[in-house]
Amino acid sequence: MFPPGLQQMLQQQFMQGCALAQQGTMVEAGGNLPGAAQCYEQAAAILSTCIVEAQQYQVPVDPEGWFNLSWCHFNTARTQTMLGWGAAAPGHLMQAHNALNIAINMNPTFAPFHAAMGVLLATEGQAALATQAFLRAIQLNPADAFSQYMLAILNQVQGNVAAGTQHYAAAQQYAPTLPPPQQALQAHDRGGKGFDWNALVSTAGELFKAVNSVSSLFSSPQGNPSQGFPGGSPGGDFGGGFT
User: How confident is the model over 215-228, as a mean pLDDT?
Assistant: First the structure.
């Protein structure tokens, strides 16, 4: 049994970390990428400390708590890479993977978690594995336009033009102004060096910030899964954590 008041104290600290992550999104929107990267990294450290302490005292951590931790690590890696501070990015991506895998294992039928995994894998340039994750997301939620659009891009990269066209048409049902996937690919083509996947995935996330039916690691972490995550509007307070 954990000490009295510990769960409440951990939840308060966890919410402070989430608030710092939310501050990072606002700072990034204001054009201060170094400041945002610092906020995301500090938020990840706070959430990590809270979860480690919770595990020591056997305080249950809910799936959204693990997702929020993954979100912070992912956005730390994303912004640091954009700034040219890529040395620490692999470590943050590994932590993001670990936390998101735990969230998926706890709630395997929640489509946004699988879409988020697709984002992680696509950022790393693992097109085949990312495709599998996004396919699982649309199996659970065919109206996930973000995942449909990412599948259109990924299939184009892998030479599956017919499948890419099909997924693009499905995405357009919910976001009719989306540019063709070829346009996104051309914008981030580094010639013989392949695609800048970090920038490409970030661009896709920006396109979907106004689409509420999708979910990814680009919108703010939150405690109510029904409100969605990839590319969608935050739509609520930060939450999750300890049950």
Answer: 40
